[in-house]
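Saturday, quiet lab. Running sequence design on the structure tokens for the scaffold JK sent over.
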């Protein structure tokens, strides 16, 4: 008695599986194409939001804003750990998402300063810093940031007293 060769059955299963994968990829591709076509008006408004100073046609906004490009290169090439947590950064980021471009005042110049300046693209971001040497170090690396030296006449341990005073108590 001759044993049956299982090879033709396995080949049929493989071919059937490949056919279904091809069919699924065609369906997925056609669905994504129709989704993009149906939402072309959304891409126009997204382009206008990304380039508020330009006309709202998507073809006029094809480049990444220089501030964003500089920030991306800076953060991709640095190994510095952020000074704030994601939760802390998210608070200010959500405000900038709604309000930018705007006038944005930041107390302290940090490793995250370029990010804040970039998130306020088209607005004015000003940093106030107490340490002159730190300002010089940052200006060497990031000369486009607008920063000013300040001398505070109060200290953190006076915070409660100053808050009470400001509230008129």
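Result came back. Writing it out in full:
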């Amino acid at each position: 008695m001759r044993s049956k060769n299982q090879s033709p059955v396995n080949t049929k299963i493989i071919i059937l599986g490949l056919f279904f994968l091809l069919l699924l990829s065609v369906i997925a591709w056609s669905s994504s194409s129709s989704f993009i076509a149906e939402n072309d008006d959304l891409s126009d408004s997204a382009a206008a939001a990304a380039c508020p100073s330009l006309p709202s046609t998507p073809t006029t906004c094809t480049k990444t804003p220089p501030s964003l490009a500089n920030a991306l290169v800076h953060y991709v090439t640095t190994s510095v750990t952020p000074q704030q947590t994601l939760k802390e950064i998210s608070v200010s980021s959500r405000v900038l998402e709604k309000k930018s471009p705007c006038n944005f005042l930041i107390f302290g110049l940090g490793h995250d300063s370029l990010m804040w300046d970039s998130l306020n693209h088209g607005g004015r971001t000003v940093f106030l810093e107490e340490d002159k040497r730190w300002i010089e170090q940052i200006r060497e690396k990031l000369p486009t940031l607008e920063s000013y030296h300040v001398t505070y006449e109060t200290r953190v341990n006076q915070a409660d007293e100053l808050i009470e005073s400001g509230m008129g108590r």
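Notes for JK: Helices lie at 7-38, 40-50, 66-76, 86-99, 113-119, 132-141, 159-166. Residues 64-161 form one domain. Ask whether to fix the surface positions before the next round.
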